[in-house]
């Protein structure tokens, strides 16, 4: 691990974490490259490399390594588990792009567009299999339980999202389940598995699970807030994508709950029926503004960020604890 220097004071928390864990990430990346190979099916490493090497931030592997070091782990199997969570994440992205019929991911054409849907699904399956091979090698049934449960939660969340998509009657409880599957499940599995691998006290295991869960939820709520124009322009994100895809996110769910008859008819038309016309997104923004649900969503994200930071309070003092605290704060900086 590398020490933080003064020259890094202006780096983002994510960058500071990456620099501190640089030696670990070198080992994790080497393991990823080795395990994504296939002697008999060269298309597998071609597709996997296209996505894995496209500039992802490796936040999930970093969370796992950070949790293991924070809990004083001395072995090498955290590299295996870090590669595991990255493989699970990559597999879900390959499958998501097929389900969503996406054409772009991380600024590049998606694998399903460059190759085909069948290849994307099958390579995603291959990465899930590799992930299970890696997690078994650490020899901990409890870690296997944590990560396999996370994989199931992710799949369950995807199916739930399909069943709630384009349905204005979607509840906040359903929305929370979707974003737990979409983002938080693998964040919390990474932090919890790192603590369990280090044989940390149960209070520390629970704290790190809570941290990862709350961090992931906060991150996704901020993303959903930004999609309806939060923080104005210049945020590096196209606004309105969720509206055009008829996704039910927190600003909309709460606006529908407060809607009068005419507003309800509008949401039924643009979300349920998919009859979207010029100016509808701006009208959606106006309705949301009328009911104050952008500010409510902002406060919800801040609340989950605070939950993540509070969870770290009882963990031992460590530079990584400070970085994880800063990361939770950084996630909601986009709200300002």
Short descriptors:
two-stranded antiparallel sheet; 336 residues; mainly alpha; globular
Mean pLDDT: 88
Cα-based radius of gyration, to the nearest Å: 20 Å
> Main beta sheet, described?
2 strands, antiparallel
The helix content, as a percent range, equals 55-70%
* Helix and strand composition category: mainly alpha
**Poorly predicted runs:** 1-8, 232-236
- The beta-strand count equals 2
Morphology call: globular
Distance from first to last alpha carbon = 33 Å
Strand % is under 5%
> Which strand order do you get reading across the main beta sheet?
1-2
The topology string of helices and strands comes to HHHHHEEHHHHHHHHHHH
Describe the fold and architecture.
- This protein has 16 helices and 2 strands.
- The protein is an all-alpha fold and 336 residues long.
- Strands 1-2 form a two-stranded antiparallel sheet.
- The relative contact order is 0.11.
Describe the SSE topology.
Elements: H1 13-20, H2 22-35, H3 43-52, H4 59-70, H5 77-99, E1 104-105, E2 108-109, H6 111-114, H7 117-137, H8 141-164, H9 172-197, H10 202-226, H11 241-244, H12 250-257, H13 261-272, H14 280-291, H15 293-311, H16 319-331
Antiparallel strand pairs: 1-2
């Amino acid at each position: 691990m590398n020490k933080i220097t003064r020259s890094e004071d202006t780096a983002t928390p994510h960058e500071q974490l990456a620099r501190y864990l640089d030696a670990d990430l070198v080992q994790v990346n080497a393991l990823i490259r080795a395990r994504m190979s296939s002697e008999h099916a060269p298309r597998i490493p071609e597709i996997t490399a296209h996505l894995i090497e496209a500039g992802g931030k490796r936040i999930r592997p970093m969370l796992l390594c950070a949790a293991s070091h924070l809990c004083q782990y001395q072995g090498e199997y955290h590299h295996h588990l870090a590669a595991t969570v990255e493989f699970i994440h990559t597999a879900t992205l390959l499958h998501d792009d097929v389900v969503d019929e996406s054409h772009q991911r991380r600024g590049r054409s998606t694998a399903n567009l460059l190759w085909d849907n069948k290849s994307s699904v099958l390579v995603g399956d291959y990465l899930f299999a590799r992930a299970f091979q890696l997690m078994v090698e650490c020899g901990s049934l409890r870690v296997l339980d944590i990560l396999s449960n996370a994989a199931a939660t992710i799949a369950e969340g995807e199916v739930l999202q399909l069943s709630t998509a384009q349905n204005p009657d979607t509840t906040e409880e359903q929305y929370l389940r979707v974003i737990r599957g979409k983002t938080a499940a693998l964040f919390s599995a990474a932090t919890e598995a790192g603590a369990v691998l280090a044989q940390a006290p149960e209070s520390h295991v629970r704290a790190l699970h809570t941290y990862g869960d709350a961090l992931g939820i906060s991150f996704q709520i901020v993303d959903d807030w930004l999609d309806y124009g939060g923080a104005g322009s210049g945020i590096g994100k196209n606004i309105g994508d969720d509206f055009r895809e008829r996704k039910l996110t927190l600003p909309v769910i709460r606006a529908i709950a407060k809607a009068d008859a005419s507003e309800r008819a509008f949401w039924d038309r643009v979300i349920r029926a998919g009859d979207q016309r010029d100016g509808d997104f701006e009208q959606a923004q106006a309705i949301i503004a009328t009911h104050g649900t952008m500010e409510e969503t902002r406060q919800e994200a801040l609340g989950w960020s605070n939950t993540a930071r509070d969870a770290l309070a009882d963990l031992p003092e460590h530079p990584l604890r400070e970085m994880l605290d800063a990361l939770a704060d950084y996630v909601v900086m986009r709200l300002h």
